[in-house]
Amino acid sequence: MTTLILTVAGADRPGLVAAVADVVEAHGGNWENSSLAELAGTFAGVIEVSVAEDRAPELSSALRGLQGQGLLTLAVLTGTPDADAADDRLLEIQVLGNDRPGIVREVSAVLSAHALSIEELATETRDAAMAGGRLFEASVSAKVPASVDLDALRDDLERLAAEIQVDITLG
Predict the structure, then answer these.
(1) Which domains does the chain possess?
(2) pLDDT < 70 positions in the chain
(3) Contact present, 44 and 9 (Cβ < 8 Å)
(4) Rounded to an integer, what distance in angstroms lies between the CA atom of residue 99 and that of residue 96?
(5) pTM, rounded to two decimals
(6) Is the dihedral of CA 139, 47, 10, 18 positive or negative?
């Protein structure tokens, strides 16, 4: 089996997911994992599909044909499992604070400096009900290699939280 990674984006409308799913199924593919969302009127996502190796080129070609049907972009990449990640563990990180530019950049820089790889990142801004202004919230799942010094990581995240005035919780 071969793993294909699809990235999709286009003006949001009913039927985009169904169009992709129909092509995947018609070419013997199996929809494994996905993260899809509507953001500011644009539908965007990433989809992991498995398919028999001999059917991958045909599926890739058929998926690219969807670009004329409302998807602005569709890229098909071949995924490769990370064999070195067997000893990695997942760390859940929550960030909450007043919204301001640079929070994602600063948090991701600390994670990168400690060799963590972000598995999943979800962010949201919303009105602060009682205080006024906007709140920024992020949930991060990151792979932590066994060699990482968790105490040093925690210290750096706590230092960053104080500098940019957000709460950062490790779980």
Answers:
(1) 2-79 (3.30.70.260), 84-170 (3.30.70.260)
(2) 70-74, 79-86
(3) yes
(4) 9
(5) 0.77
(6) negative
Report the Cα 6 to chain-centroid distance in Å. 12
CA separation for the pair 7, 10 (Å, rounded): 11
Residues 6+ apart with CB under 8 A from 105: none
- Contact at 8 Å (CB) between 41 and 92? no
* DSSP states along the chain: -EEEEEEEEEE--TTHHHHHHHHHHHTT-EEEEEEEEEETTEEEEEEEEEE-GGGHHHHHHHHHGGGGGTEEEEEEEEE---GGGGG-EEEEEEEEEE--TTHHHHHHHHHHHTT-EEEEEEEEEEE-TTT-SEEEEEEEEEEE-TT--HHHHHHHHHHHHHHHTEEEEE-
